[in-house]
């Protein structure tokens, strides 16, 4: 299908597609057959990605990336999503990708040198430390309890975070903390760069969770107990933490949409291949209409995701906030891709549940998408508020109804 | 929401929006309150539409229209769909709109003068006579049994049609008939212009059906018994009837998508207004989350329709067939708009079922959309065939699975 | 399928089945072909129903019925539902059936003689006047504004009702009015028997609505303006109106479930017959797997309705309130039957939309079921309240989660 | 909710409920907090189950069970399903439970002594070896390729099986093999008892799959290469293997329905507890209507499962085949329980994905249910065939439609 992307976008996606087919997916197949996941393997994949000009395309050249426009990178994200190894290989893997984006956007030159460039190079890793345990910040970030208090030219961070992706492996964290407890949290919260080995940072424990089979990555519980950082550790503007988080999230949600669309598309390809190969009741499964049509539905909805995401990206590129189209894309994509993966498993029967195919790993991994980066319910809340805006309510429509 | 339409498209839509709000919807309200639907009323609406420059925008100026590009007219179609009277008022009403399009596309100058121009002017009406009774052409048009046989310089048409929209009111029909019975139907069928008062044309009876409450239009059963027409009655190229029908249907399906999207959007507006007004269990219905979120889902899916339709229109404007994106848009739009209307009724409770609001009429009218212009199942068939194309089947994906 | 009903229930259902197949459905077919609906036709159907021992089976013999137990009549209701004429023919038609039930349950001997017996005989008709216009009682009956004030040995009724089924045709109404405005409405509302020709009763107008094609029945707006009735007009116990309404509704909801299950089953039978007859793309529609499986899903869900309804009826027969199983049955049945009818139309294509088959009428009629007798949302509210009962909340389940 | 079970059934379920709440679920909580799963732990749980009279209730007392009727054990199965450890603890765990049932039903006394009694005692384990790799038996068991050939008074088994549950741990297998290759497979296949250490049995490898987190159980690929067993190893009647498999499957499908219903119910309890505890946007999640209503829907559908399963069990107890009600129960239960678990995760947000709660394990485990014991598609095939039976097709319904 033709999506009217720019020539740059197409070339990038084409290179990514070849890289996936020729390198990443065969590597994944080895892992599924029992091979080990190692740091060396990651390094090899990344070296090959650099070689093929598909490494960190979204970051400026001066910091080690390829300097592409956001909209031009989207199709590559879809390619990358076709294997759980793809984003890692092309260095567009969460949470590092979002963290790089944030530092590039609002960081100082010193911060970029210290954190962004080694991140891009793949020498270090990072975590985004926002979510807190029960009773703290979650879907409702206003409930944040972690604080950063100014003490001379230092900030002292105290708090308790949970579900920090890559928490156990990170070299540093972007920590979100309230810096003006009298203000509304949206106007009194800031971001800080905190080294993982700073005094007072305690990785309580990694939280085992769905989706750790292919890439053994933690989601850690972390305590910040009187952690002191210098003024230079403030990332972006004081008290603007939520604004920066939103700047990070808009594009990040769209890149997630594309990545998971890639996953769903691959899942359907596997299902179609299996159906084409497997016979039952006197014909191949591919000839059975019910699942054929179910797949047609999914292809249709994935097509919808691709047109919605491009629309939202165009809004963002035009400098608009694009909150509603982003929320719509995200909630629609998350539900669609989860269902597409689920359908693919069903079409493959027993093999679909086995870890010989990547579908079982996809099944576990995709489940997060309806929860992270704004749960379905949070996005629906935003969309509904807009839908019930007074401009959309027209009392004259009820004129014919009897009333008291 | 901004959809990046051209300035021409926006201005046209804006004028249409004002026309709907100021003229058409108030007229509809009068009808729902018990006022009569008359020819005079249609004439008045059309005069006002001409006045406001929203009349027949899709037809060339030389034939009485406004000469707009297809893609530029789409947003107007959405506006027109907000009332069942809208398309009639702006003279973009089926089946005349599609028939005008076909004659404009493949008709001779004489045919345009005789049929197209009076159609545009609203002086005559037309039917598209394709569907046949049981055992004849329906979802599978290959089963067509109506024939046209050359006899000297005349064609003799024999057949039995059903479900000809506007059959009882039409001044002429575009009749689809097999002209080469030895060829595959797709390569041996032609279109003919047949006057309703020609000898041998018998309107057997109008078929009562869902959706006749607002505009009393028939879907007739018609027999063609030795109907003789001259060679000049052939519309387009001999034996190319199915190609012409497809040329008609691609854009027509997209305009239907937009019209029904307009209907669904209006339905949701009515629902939101009712919910904002009505209290139950200590708050307004608008404050009840379950239906708010259900509406958010619908708004999301309607947004998806709008981005998909524009994508497909762009393909068509680029001269591509766009069969898959059109089928995807159509099947997705038809299901979405039916559900949106149904949800709107549910949100309005009793009043939703009453004919004091337009929702009950919408409910009946929208049901046709999943059946006409290709039933859901026909579009899924096309989409699935494309999805299972051999390029999408990759045997290497099964390499890890045991086999015999 | 065997549902372990009593021998009485089976025999009754078998007679009803024969009556439907041999008399009612052929009569319906005549109406769909254009025949007129007349009072004589109703009388003939009822005479035949009496002859075949399927007339008013749920009412005691002393009042003109057959004296069957509630649970034994359920399978007959399913049979009756197979045509929109069935309930009328067997005199189990709403709202008269529910009104008969209420008078039989809580009426005085005099009331039974004056109202119940002529109702059973089909000599008079009745309405249940509860719902009020916007701002009054609807889904939330606590908002009731109609009052009945004691004045000597008379009650004076003032109020404004809407959506009173059969309002225009009724000989009397059961009117629900607040009799103790200081009490909570659930404890201060009563039922009254009010003759339609009493002074102060004004039928403002019938409200046109979905579903009037087969049986032309009104849903009227009615004003009660200082209507005086004697003490004997109080139906049941003073201030117990809501309790009586619930006694009426529990069983009535189950009988509705069975009626609409019958409608859905008939709709599917028509769809299967059409699919068996109609060919497209080289095989009959019955051989196309996607719709076959969609029908299998519906059959499954209708089977679920039948087992749920029987379970709830058993609870009611044991003297329990059965509020949760009744609400579950109702909301599940309403959604299932609407979808089954909708699917049947889709399977029939164009003919499904025509009024030559009963499906279009079913489509309009079934839409009410998710709204009347408690909208979906009201039942879900009740079910959710029960589900979140503190007995179902177990804090120890969260023991492993981190917290502040 | 009251389901009209027998007093025996209720007492059994009540004891099981207490056992689950007091012993099994706390043990599960320890495992989720990081404790090890050991054989000792299983032994302790089973000792306690014996103590509390909830051990192997479905097997005759003479073979070590409790001798309860099938229908009376169903509610216990629901209790057991509330934790993945429950079935193991009460010795009603698949595939041993089904294997015990089969041996009890068709085995000889010697077979019962050798295999059934140690199974009941928990001294040995077993596998059911039916499914084969690609191109062999799967959803369509007619495609079976494994054979058993008579050679003197021995049978020689040759074949390749896959997906044999507990394959790596089993002490013996029930192997399904074709014994009359000229007959239709349904009439030429037999069951054999094969010791795991017999010559020619090769466990190729365990197949990693979804759902191994709580109980590390294999699904192995196995080759049978000229495995010789004596005549006494034939289980049941020669060539009646499929009949025996069906006898096993009917009740087994219903017990699975109840087990997974228990899992879904527990998942919803956890979700409700979390929602009751967690706040966001100014109220607890339990007060948010959208998810409350989604839970109400699930409770409704689980209620439907319970009434359907009891209906089917009653049919089976009456000696009927009950194929349709069993298939309906199974496909409906599998989809409902999967959705209930998925919803519960969504309601819990991040914690729902963590393995601190059992939901993530449930999510993986429940995915199998729509595939094993007849995939959805296989059951729909059976239900559809019944629905389109000629008795359900009535040509007179189309009498009003025009035709050629």
Automatic annotation (TrEMBL), chains A, B, C, D:
Belongs to the acyl-CoA dehydrogenase family. GO terms for biological process: fatty acid beta-oxidation using acyl-CoA dehydrogenase. Homodimer. Residues 6-123 form the Acyl-CoA dehydrogenase/oxidase N-terminal domain. Residues 128-225 form the Acyl-CoA oxidase/dehydrogenase middle domain. Pfam families: Acyl-CoA_dh_1 (PF00441), Acyl-CoA_dh_M (PF02770), Acyl-CoA_dh_N (PF02771). Residues 239-386 form the Acyl-CoA dehydrogenase/oxidase C-terminal domain. GO terms for cellular component: cytoplasm. It comes from the Archaea. Its cofactor is FAD. Keywords: FAD, Flavoprotein, Oxidoreductase. This is Acyl-CoA dehydrogenase family protein. GO terms for molecular function: acyl-CoA dehydrogenase activity; flavin adenine dinucleotide binding. It comes from Salinirubellus salinus.
